[in-house]
Amino acid sequence: MQSTWQTFMQDRGDGITYVDWVLSAWGWTLSIAACAWVLALLIGSLVGTLRTVPSKPLQWLSNTWVELFRNVPLLIQVFLWYQVLPVVFPSLQKLDTFVLVVFALGFFTSARIAEQVRAGIQSLPRGQFMAGSAIGLTRAQTYRYVILPMAFRIVLPPLTSEAMNIIKNSSVAFAVGIGEMVLYAQQAGAELSAEVPAYLIVTVFYVISAFAVNRLMAFVESRVRVPGYVGGSK
Amino acid sequence: MNLDLSFYNWELISNFVQKGFLFSLQLTLVAMIGGILLGTVLAMMRLSSVKALQWVSAGYVNGLRSIPLLMVILWVFLLLPEGIGAERSALVTFTLFEAAYYSEIMRAGIQSIPRGQVYAGQAIGLSYGQNMRFVILPQAFRNMLPVLLTQTIILFQDTSLVYVIGAYDLFKGFETAGKTMGRPVEAYLAAAVVYFVICFALSQLVKRLQKKIAIVR
User: Fold this and answer.
1) What does the mean pLDDT of chain A come to?
2) Can you give chain B as a three-state secondary structure string?
3) Strand partners, A11
4) I need a labelling partner for B217 at 20 to 30 A (CA). Which of A67, B23, B63, B168 fits?
């Protein structure tokens, strides 16, 4: 074990040790996940809300969005963003691979978040909408002040598992050569002929990340809960 | 944008894609059947009154669920003896990995059966095994069928991740076709369309099934 650690402390040849490298890989994993999470949350909330409004074209549009991004494997979506879309839209060629992967992962996850937001909104009693219009709120105001604040609290638990999923799913970025943790495990493992320790380190980092996100979301949940409602009695 | 439509010639690409499609199908079916069987055992362990069994099952399920499937694919490929091949390693990986997810579905299914059914089974003298076999599991399966099938669609999509160990599946088939004919853009696009059509059709079927089951119940 001693010698294995020394192997990982050794210089890679450019002043960076294998330990430094795994920390940078962890950073890539977390950055992809965090950026994609923000994007997915924004789009997912919008699309999920649109699925519940009484307008056929908007419903069709948002349903199509969800079906499109839910029924193509993430790995293939990454290749679509990286290989196909820059050919179709040349302006995308200027974008960094990191940005393309963030788009791929963010759009993919937005479909799943949209489903949960929709389910959250539909789980609210219809009386909430009626109460909103009864006190003279417009539909947009009803969503903003009545429906969404409640719906988001309801969907926090499934959003927690999505947040943990997005960290795991960021691993597909290896396919387009981003130096995240799966790519590290493969390359460092091969270079040092020490696959088992390399995989172990990466696995431990993934478990730590998942646990940290879980605790973070639990903290958010405890801060925003409404007493006497939606898990408020916990 | 100029796509070369001559790429979309079934005679040409079927040479590359057919073998991969059959493997993806095999992988999905093997992992579904194996995963549901193993997952049911894990769910029963989790719900048993023996603490040790509960821990083993919970550790297995939570452990596998907290690391990316890609890492699991790499681990199994590394730990299995060399020469077993990427394809067979993937069969093992997906069965073990999906069992963790199916077990959570089966656990919810078993828990959705009212306790009275268990007592009724005990009252007419069924053993634990008979009670599970004849009373609980058939109902749990039925209730959970749409969710199990939805998980299987996700499983089918995830089989594309065997890319990381170079196994020859449907996606690899398209990629190889694209590289051989110098038309990668057309190939990736075709792969996306094929996966979309299969998964979308299956998910519509599951939706209809769900409605049917809901009415009968």
Assistant:
1) 91
2) CCCCHHHCCHHHHHHHHHHHHHHHHHHHHHHHHHHHHHHHHHHHHHHCCCHHHHHHHHHHHHHHHCCCHHHHHHHHHHHCCCCCCHHHHHHHHHHHHHHHHHHHHHHHHHHCCCHHHHHHHHHCCCCHHHHHHHHHHHHHHHHHHHHHHHHHHHHHHHHHHHHHHCCCCHHHHHHHHHHHCCCHHHHHHHHHHHHHHHHHHHHHHHHHHHHHHHHHC
3) A17
4) A67
**Closest of A157, A210, A32 to residue A105, by C-alpha:** A32
Q: A interface mutation test: which of B28, B71, B73 has the most A CBs within 10 A?
A: B71
**B44-98 confidence digits (pLDDT tens):** 999 999 999 999 999 999 999 999 999 999 999 999 998 899 999 999 999 999 9
The secondary element (H helix, E strand) that includes residue A87 is helix A85-88
Burial of A24 (0-12, 13-18, 19+ CB in 10 A): middle
The secondary structure of residue A126, as a DSSP letter, is: T
Dig out the tokens for A130 from the structure. Answer: 């009626």
Average pLDDT on A119-124 reads 94
Residues of A in contact with B69 (CB under 8 A): 168
Whether the Cβ atoms of residue A12 and residue A24 lie closer than 8 Å to each other: no
> What does the alpha-carbon distance between residue B184 and residue B172 come to, in Å, rounded to a whole number?
12
Residue A160: CA count within 13 A, CB half-sphere: 18
Look up the pTM and report it.
0.91
CA dihedral for A176, A182, A186, A189, sign (positive or negative): positive
Cβ atoms of A205 and A184 closer than 8 Å: no
Q: Return the pLDDT at B200.
A: 97
Task: Collapse the DSSP code of A53 into the 3-class scheme (helix H, G, I; strand E, B; otherwise coil) and give the result.
Answer: coil
DSSP helix/strand/coil, A11: strand
- In angstroms, what CA-CA distances link A105 with A82, A102, B59, B196? 12, 5, 28, 17
Q: Residue A206: which of B67, B160, B200 has the nearest Cβ?
A: B67
What integer is the mean pLDDT of A167-178? Answer: 95
Chain A environment of B190 (Cβ under 8 Å): none
B152, B188, B199, B205: which to substitute to probe chain A, counting the most A Cβ within 10 Å? B188
Of B105, B103, B79, nearest in space to B165 by CA:
B79
Separation of alpha carbons B51 and B53, rounded Å = 5
Q: How far apart are CA A152 and CA A45, in angstroms?
A: 9
